Every structure is written in structure tokens, then in C-alpha cells.
Amino acid sequence: MFPFNFEWIWDMPHMVFMGGLWYALGILGVGMTYCIIKAAVNAGNHATGNHD
Amino acid sequence: MDSAFIPNGVRRCAPGKFLVVLAVAGAVLLWGVYAMLLCWFKGLNQTNMNNNYGFALWIWADLAVIALGGGAFFTGFLRYIIGKDELKNIVNYAVLIGFICYSSALLILAIDIGQPLRGWFIFWHANVHSMLTEVAFCLSCYFGVLTIEYIPLILENRGIDRVPFLHHLGHNMHDIMAVFAATGAFLSFFHQGSLGGVAGVLFGRPFSFREGFFIWPWTFFLFTWSAAAYGPCFTLLITRITEAVTGKKLVKDNVVELLAKISGWMMATYIIAKIVDTLYWANVTAPSKGFTLMDFYSHNAFYGVWILILEIVIGGIIPAAILITDKGRKSPAARTTAFVLAVIGVCVNRWVMVLQVMAAPVMTFDKWALYYPSWQEVATTILPVAYGVILIAISYRYLPIFPQEPELNPID
């Protein structure tokens, strides 16, 4: 559920529950995105022979 | 046939023998899948759940595997956050076991909700006043964490590791694993706790109701504590079983003893807290609701004081006493006995907090309501065991799960 959905209410339970969920998913998403992009860059360097 | 995918420096059984293991476990798995499909296509009338038992065998199995899978978050916490470096030799297996436990828990929930196509409702139409919503959120997210922790292991397979992108991806994920482990520990603290909290807030059921701190009943903290204490015992027990099946030493004794010692002390402190909680409940909480202790352990064909003794003494005090002593910990037989008793103890705890709660009469005109699961419930509860055996067999064969295996079992 997002704040722009009609069921959303700006109260503490919604902010704590949904905020916690998106916070955790955000950490996992950002972490994995970082790993994938860095791996792509590393693999590109590997292919071009640049191992710095 | 598959030697190109087997890790370097280790020996595995012939492919034929491996396939026989998969076939046997696969047959049990198919039996469970058949029962699962019956539940999905014909409905929950395939179960023996009724008005007394909205929670039944599946929820016990769920709570039990989640507690047993707690070895993953606690071992990860000790390895990556506290810095117990020796545990790097068993954390892979803890992650695999945790992955199996949590995927099993989610599978059982998918059967239990009756209409799995509506499973996403709990996220989109969330009831933000329910502890079970928090459990669903944390459980799903933590399964994501376990998947992220399991992926680098898969990427270490000899065949997969040859692909540069995947090789680097595995390394990068290892580099920031502490972030994922910390997230996992945070999520686990809350969902393990909330599973206990659900029982503790049932003010209409004096068998499980507990007072507590702020909005959290004491069962919230006891469940988290017990998962951290007993989960590593399950990891160590499965490691011991794997060693017996493969006929190899897979983890050095110092690693096993370290985790067993930490688990033992966690268990000892937990069981003291559990005894204090039980005494307060028996002498203050239950009488305030009009019950005596023996009202919950008499006048029925199954639940007697024996179950309290099994949970606290045999499944708690004895394994804790074995594991906190040097002599007990260093004896393989005593150590394994402690692991078995601990696993029984935590499973019994989850049983009473789910099923005895439902069975005990509440009103003066109520009778004990005992429940027997249908074969479909039993088959779908055994399904995850077969699935676990298959995943462990495949992972052990193709992935470097045990870093110390080549050193402990040199190939001539």
C-alpha cells in the first residue's frame, strides 16, 4: 500500500507498519542494485583487461 | 557425468546413488504436493480444522520451522555483526537451513490461507493493527534476505563461477553481507517476537495470555529469545545428521563447540526467564482470570503436566545444562543428545502455544476440544521435510557449503 492509495490514512500505525516495510525493502533493493551495477562494471573491466 | 560442477577438493557419491536419494525424497514430496493441490482445488474442507481450531497443525509447523530456522539470523548476527570469525565455517549451512525453513513456512501459509491467489492482499490491504501483518511483512522480507544470502553460495558453483559477471556479483554480495545480515537480524527480532505476541495478547484465552511491557506481552520476548537459543541447535543437529549420512567430518569441533556454547548460554538464560514467566502466570495471571494451573493440565485425554515437564525440564534445562558445561559440550554423544532435546523442547513450546491454547476450555460450560489432523494436513506438513532433504542434497553436492570439508577429508 502506498500513501496515494485510497485506503491510506496518515496515522501512526500506517506510517510505522508501511514505513518499516518499505524501509526494509529499500535496503535490500538498494543493496542488490549496488551489487549488480558494480558486478557489471567489474565484468566490463575484466573483459577489457583493465583490472584496476 | 556432473563432475565439472562438483566443488574442488571434495569427493561426492556416484550420480546413480544421488538420483536414488532424490527419487525417494521426491516421492514423498509428490505425496505432499498432491495433498496441497487437494487443499487448493477442493478447499480447506480437506482439513480437520473447525470452529475450535482456526489455527492447527500447519500453524504449529510454521512456528516450529521459523524457530528452528532462527539459527540463520542468529549465526549471521554472531558472524557479521559480533565478529565471531570461526562461525564462517558453518554460517553457509545455517543460511541454507534457514532458507529451507522460511520457504517451507511461506509454502505452508500459502496452503493455509486457502486462496493463495489473494496472498498479496495482506501487503496491499494491510491491517495495520495486527501482529500477524507485521509477521507477514517481516517473514517475507526476511525470506528475501535469506535468498540474498543463499545466492552467493549458488554463484560459487564451479560452473557458474566461470562467468565473470556472476563471479563478481557473488564477491560484491559477500562484501556487503553485513548489511543484509543486520537487516535480517532486525526483521527476525520482530517477526519471531510477534509470533509469540499473537498468543500473548489473547486476553480471552487465559492459557496463553501474558502481561508485558508497553504493547508487547512477555511471550514476544520469549519467542525471539528461544529462536535465537534453539535455532543454532537445529543447525548443529542437521550438520551432525549430514556428517552421519555422508560419513565425513564437515565442521571442526572448535566451531561446533563455540556455537553450542553460545546456544547453551542463550538457552540457559531463556529457560530461567521461561520458568519465571510460567510461575508468574500460574500464580498471578491465570488466577486473576479465574483459573488454577491444574485447570490447564487435567480432565482431558492428552494434555497433562507431562507436557510442561517435557518442554521446560527435558527440552530446556537438560540441554542447556549439557551445553554450558565443558564436559558436556566436548562429548559428541552428549552434545548430540542436547541438540535433539533442544529441538524437541522448542517444538513442544510452539505446540502448546498454538494447539493447547485452542484445546483448553475457556467458559465454564466448555469442554476440552482435542484435534486430530487429516492426512492432507499431515502430508503437507511432511512436504517441507522432503523438500529440505532435496535442497540439502543438491546444495551439498554442487556448492561449497562446508569450507573446512577439503581440509578435513583430503583426497589422496
Walkthrough of the structure:
The complex is a heterodimer of chains A (52) and B (412). With 52 residues, chain A is an all-alpha fold. Chain A starts with 11 loop residues before the first helix and ends with a helix. Chain B is globular and about 70 Å long. The mean pLDDT of chain B is 94. In chain B, helix 1 packs antiparallel against helix 15, helix 2 packs antiparallel against helix 14 and helix 11 packs antiparallel against helix 12. Helices cover 70% and strands 1% of the residues of chain B. The two termini of chain B are 21 Å apart. Chain B is mainly α and 412 residues long. The relative contact order of chain B is 0.17. Chain B has a two-stranded antiparallel ribbon with strand order 1-2. Chains A and B meet through helix 1 of A and helix 6, helix 8 and helix 9 of B.
Structural key phrases:
heterodimer; A: 52 residues; mainly alpha; 1 helix; 0% strand; B: 412 residues; Formate dehydrogenase/DMSO reductase fold; two-stranded antiparallel sheet; 2 strands; 70% helix
Topology:
The complex is a heterodimer of chains A (52) and B (412).
Chain A: H1 12-48
Chain B: H1 15-42, H2 57-68, H3 70-82, H4 91-112, H5 121-124, H6 131-155, H7 158-161, H8 164-175, H9 177-200, E1 212-213, E2 216-217, H10 218-246, H11 253-288, H12 305-324, H13 326-330, H14 332-359, H15 375-398, H16 405-408
Summarize the structure in short.
The complex is a heterodimer of chains A (52) and B (412). Chain A is built from 1 helix and no strands.
